[in-house]
Amino acid sequence: MTADEFDMLGQALSPVEAELLDLYARSKALLARDGLDPCVRRNLVQSTAALSQVVTDLGIAWEPLYDLGV
Amino acid sequence: MGDSPYWNPKFETAPKARLQELQLAKWQRLVEYAAQRSPFYAAKFTGAGFEPSQLKTLDDVRRIPCTTKEEWLGTQAENPLFGDLLTAPEPVATRYHLTSGTSGRTPLRVLDSTRDWAWISEIWAYGLWGFGVRPTDVVYLAFSYASFIGFWGAHYGCEKIGALTLASGNLPTETRVRQIVELGVTTVCATPTYALRLGAVAHEMGIDLATESKIDKVVLGGEPGANIPATRRLITEALGGRCGDFAGMTEIGTNMVVECSHAPGGPHIVEDHIYEEVVDPLSDRPCAYGERGERIVTSFGRALLPLIRYRAGDLVERAPHTDCTCGRTFDLYRGGILGRADDMKVVRGTNVFPSSIEAVVRDYPEVDEFQIEISYQGGRDEITVRVELGAAPGGTADDLPDRLGKDLQECHEGLRFLIDVVGAGALPRFELKSRRLVDLREQRVGA
Lengths: 70, 447
Prior knowledge:
The structure holds two protein chains of two kinds.
Chain A: H1 15-31, H2 38-57
Helix pairs in contact in A: 1-2
Chain B: H1 9-12, H2 16-37, H3 39-47, H4 69-78, E1 93-98, E2 109-113, H5 114-131, E3 138-141, H6 152-161, E4 164-167, H7 173-182, E5 187-190, H8 192-204, H9 209-212, E6 217-220, H10 229-239, E7 242-245, E8 257-258, E9 268-269, E10 274-279, E11 292-299, E12 310-319, E13 332-333, E14 339-340, E15 345-347, E16 350-352, H11 354-361, E17 367-377, E18 380-389, H12 400-410, E19 418-422, E20 437-439
Parallel strand pairs in B: 3-4, 3-5, 5-6, 6-7, 17-20, 18-19
Antiparallel strand pairs in B: 1-2, 8-9, 10-11, 11-12, 12-13, 12-14, 15-16, 17-18
Helix pairs in contact in B: 2-3, 5-6, 7-8, 8-10
């Protein structure tokens, strides 16, 4: 297991949690790209914020995302 | 989504030790971030000799200096609009709200990003779900949607749950009453004062909301009163739904306590997202369960404007989660927010809280509206309760002043209250924060 497969308390992630964390990481990576069209960027901001909330609720991650504009 | 009674069962029902582990992990990340990014908190921590690396247990939280409303207002006055609090440049924000300024002071300003707002609506969703709001509900927000944050988060929380969410903007009360009936509204969100107003106007229109509407839940917030049993009973009689206390504050952006459907006599603290301490206001000594003290609140959510060990000024009594049978491991505030330290008035040596007067007045169903006036007459303080009578059955105006005066006196160490029955429509009505206490002593020249 890698560090990404544990939650903030060191517990192993469930399959759903691991998938959520992967989606969250990919969503952030997409947002970090330059040249995204407004419709892509602004909708990604919304979906990243929602994913951020889920991983926070589940104790998987906690981080501000203001540098990504979220 | 299933039939879970919990929005987030993983932590709403987590063992206390696990919840505390999560709190510590969030604390450590929050103070590290605030120290790096907020000039206000960086200076505050440095001034107190606190470094984030010192936070190794929850007991270490008390090493962190408290923050006050005066400090927030001070930094915002020195460096408008938001002082040195922000952790990121203003353009990332998508929402701007202000306190209502009902205390006569400069409004406090807050900014939120998309992430912060997702959190604010999430905490509302925790509470609304726990109270029983479901995707099948039709929720009516009797709220004016202005710069006061009020029920804004509730609106988004209801949408997140999937309920049909109806905004009523600045519609007249009569229109709102008709819509509540015609649109099959099941849940009303309003201040306690305005919920009573809805019932009174419906009565004048010949409509009994308790029997002619589908209301089964009333979400109360935005001002004190939702925790007063007599007020809740009147609202339930007028509107027909059970009441829930959703106390919040602009500084945190959302409700920090939520009342579950088991109605245990107080709301639960949303402990996985909000850290609440109760301390003796004078010594800062932590209070035990059942001991009345002042709330100190920390938000793990909003981070553009972090809220760290904020002295809320609210008086509360914390109770263990086992006082409720709902299965949540979140502690409760028995009786809700019991008052505000700065709401207290001293009249001839007796401590008087508006909430304790309301608790007595609301036991008189014939009283439609009331106002408290404290004045200085003939060399001493006097306290007068003006009451406006409605059409509710029971009692007469003839003996009401005597009965009410005696009841108030009994609850206030023998303090004499003057009772003044005024004509219909003589007292002001409020949609948002009510202002029922007028202290004329503060207006005396040279006072």
